[in-house]
Amino acid sequence: MTDTTTMQCTALISKMIEWQQDMKASNRTIGFVPTMGFLHEGHVALIQEAKKNNDCVAVSIFVNPTQFGPGEDFEAYPRNLDADVRLAAQAGADIVFCPEVEEMYPTDGGIRIVPGPLADQLCGASRPGHFDGVLKVVLKLVNIVQPTNIYFGMKDAQQLAIIETFFRDYNCPATIVRVPTVRELDGLAKSSRNVNLSDQERNEAPAIYETLQQGQVLVLEGVANDVVKQFVTDELEKKTSGIVDYISILTYPQLEEPTAKSKNLIIACAVQFPKARLIDNIIFEREG
Amino acid sequence: MTDTTTMQCTALISKMIEWQQDMKASNRTIGFVPTMGFLHEGHVALIQEAKKNNDCVAVSIFVNPTQFGPGEDFEAYPRNLDADVRLAAQAGADIVFCPEVEEMYPTDGGIRIVPGPLADQLCGASRPGHFDGVLKVVLKLVNIVQPTNIYFGMKDAQQLAIIETFFRDYNCPATIVRVPTVRELDGLAKSSRNVNLSDQERNEAPAIYETLQQGQVLVLEGVANDVVKQFVTDELEKKTSGIVDYISILTYPQLEEPTAKSKNLIIACAVQFPKARLIDNIIFEREG
Q: Closest Cα partner for B1 from B89, B113, B119?
C-alpha cells in the first residue's frame, strides 16, 4: 500500500512543470494517466500499470470542455475531486494535476488540430469537433507533463487510434501504452458515465458487450458485415431502451472499411440513453 | 572561431534524438535554428544569437514540402547542403540535422494543425495550407530536437506570430526568440529566394523596403491606412516589375485590422517576381 499522505496535488501548470523537471533532473521515468476524473477501476488499472513500469506517476483530472459539443454532457459529467485524489493516491500516483478550465485555456488564438479521416467514423461522425478537443488537451498535457510513457484505455478505441497516429506522425516523444478495458462482473465496460444510468438502464446495459461478443463470433464465422451490423442493432434495440448511435466493423487502428484480407478489426458501438451515451468495442484478429 | 571539424551532421531522426538526450543528460541548454537551408547572413545571425545564449546549438536544414502549395517553388527552392554545413559550423552550430523528405514524412494519417484566423491575412490568404505545413514541421522538429530556445527571423512575421500563438496556446516547452531581419547594404531583406531574381529585378528589389519605410512614416503621421496601402502599391508597381500580392497594415502579433487605439502594428507586403516571391515587413509602435 502506497503512503497516500505523500502524494502531491496541484492545480497549477507551473507547479506541474516544476515537478516533472525535478523528476527528470534525477533521471526518473514518468508514467502519465490523463483522465476526466470520477475515477473507477478502469482508471485504477491505468495508474497501476503506470506505477509498475515507471519511477513515478502523474495523473491529470480535468473535464476538458473543448471535447464536448453543444448539447453534450459537459455540465452533467460526474465530478468528485476528493474521492479521485484518494483513489489516485491508493493506486500509486505521485502527483495529481487538477487544473481549472481558466488555467488550461487562458487564451485561444484559434489554432486547431484536426484529425481528418480518422474522425469520420464511429464517435467522430456524431460528435463533430470532439477529437479536435481531445488532441488539443492531450498535446497540452503532454507538453506540461513530458511523460516517458502515457496510458490510455482501449474502451476509447477511436481516441486511442487518433492519438497513436498523431504521436507517430508528429514525433511526440512519449510512448503510448494501451490498457485493456476493465469491466463490471456482468461485462459492462467501466465508465464514469455509468452513474448517469437509471436502475433499469443499468440492468439493460450489459447487453452492449454481450451483443458485441455475438457480433464478433459472427464476423469470425464469415457472416457479411452488413448482416452482423443489422443483427447487433436489432438485438440492442430489443434488449435495451437506448438508441443505437452506430454499430461499426472497421480495420484497427486505421478505421477503414475492411476487405476480405483485413486481419485487425474492431467491432464498436455507441448507445444513447437519456442521460448517458455509452460506448464499447472489441478489437480482435481474424485469419487474413 | 569555432573548430568546424567537431560539428556533427545527421540525416537521421534517431541520431538527432540521441544527441539532444546526451545534451540534456549533461544539463546543457539547447538553442535551435530551424531553416530550409541555402543559408545567408540572416540565418547566421540566428545561429550566432543561439550560440550566445545556449550551451549548444542545433540547426536543421530541411526544405519542407508540406508548406509549399501546388505551383509554388518547392522544386526551384535553392539548395546547397555542402555550403550550408560549412556556414553553420562557422557560425557556431554543434550539429546539423538534414533529413530527407522520407525520413520526416514516412506516414501520413491525415491529422493537420490548422492555424485559423491568423492565416487569413498576409501570405496565408494567397498560400492556402502553407501555415498548416509550417506548424506541422515545427512541431515535429521541436519534438525531435526538444530545444530550450528556438530562433525565428522577423522577416517571416506571420509565421512568427502563428508559431508564437501555437506555442502559447499548446504549452510548447521551448522559448521563442525573435531575431531582427538582416538586410543587404541597399536594404533588401536577406532571403534564400533572392538568388532567383534576374539582375534587373535585384536592382529593383530594394524599393520594397524603401517603400515600406515610407508607408510606416505615413502611418505615424496619421494618414489613413487605405491611402497608405494605395501609395505603397502604386510606388511598388512603378519602381519594380513585380506584381504586388498584398500590402497590409495590421496589429501585431494578432494580425487584426487596427483601430485608432492599436499600438503595435505591422506593415507588410509580398511582391511576386517571375521566379521569386519576396516578402518584407516593418513591425513598429505607434502612440495609442
A: B89
| d(CA B257, nearest CA chain A) in Å | 15
CATH code of the domain in which B156 resides: 3.40.50.620
Whether chain B has a CB inside 8 Å of the CB on A180: the answer is no
Q: Give the CATH number, domain containing residue B269.
A: 3.30.1300.10
SS3 assignment, position A180: coil
CA-based nearest residue to A97, from A79, A85, A106, A114: A85
Is B102 inside any structural domain? yes
User: What is the tens place of the pLDDT at every residue in A142-161?
Assistant: 999 999 999 999 999 999 99
Residue A285 CA to residue A283 CA, distance in Å, equals 7
A43 given a catalytic annotation = yes
**Mean pLDDT of successive 10-residue segments in chain B (288 residues)?**
74 98 95 97 97 98 96 93 97 98 97 96 93 98 98 97 98 98 97 96 98 98 97 98 97 95 97 96 91
Contact B162 A111 (CB under 8 A): yes
Residue-wise pLDDT for B271-286, tens only, equals 999 999 999 999 999 9
What does the radius of gyration of chain A's CA atoms come to, in whole angstroms? 19
Spatial distance between the Cα atoms of B79 and B83, rounded to a whole number of angstroms: 9
Contact A139 B170 (CB under 8 A): yes
User: Which chain B residue's Cα is nearest to A166?
Assistant: B111
In the chain, the amino acid numbered B22 is: D
Q: CA B176 to CA B6: how far, in whole Å?
A: 27
Shortest CA distance from B133: residue in chain A: A170
Q: Of the candidates B146, B179, B212, which is a domain's last residue?
A: B179
Chain A nearest-CA distance from B109, in A, is 6
DSSP summary character for residue A17:
H
The answer, for A109 touching chain B at a CB cutoff of 8 Å, is yes
Task: Give the chain B residue nearest A172 (alpha carbons).
Answer: B143
Q: Please state, in angstroms and rounded to a whole number, the distance separating the CA atoms of residues A116 and A132.
A: 9
In total, the C-beta contacts within 8 angstroms joining chain A to chain B are 84
Query: A252: domain range?
Result: 192-277
Closest CB to B118: pick one of A110, A146, A170.
Answer: A110
Same domain, A96 and A30: yes
Question: How far A143 CA lies from chain B's nearest CA (Å)?
Answer: 6
On whether residue B224 sits in a domain, the answer given is yes
> Does residue B184 belong to any structural domain of this protein?
no
* Per-residue pLDDT reduced to its tens digit, B62-121: 999 999 999 898 999 999 999 999 999 999 999 999 999 999 999 999 999 999 999 999
**Would the pTM count as exceeding 0.90?**
yes
Instruction: Tell me which of A136, A170, A254 to substitute to probe the interface with B (most B C-beta atoms closer than 10 Å).
Output: A170
ipTM score: 0.94
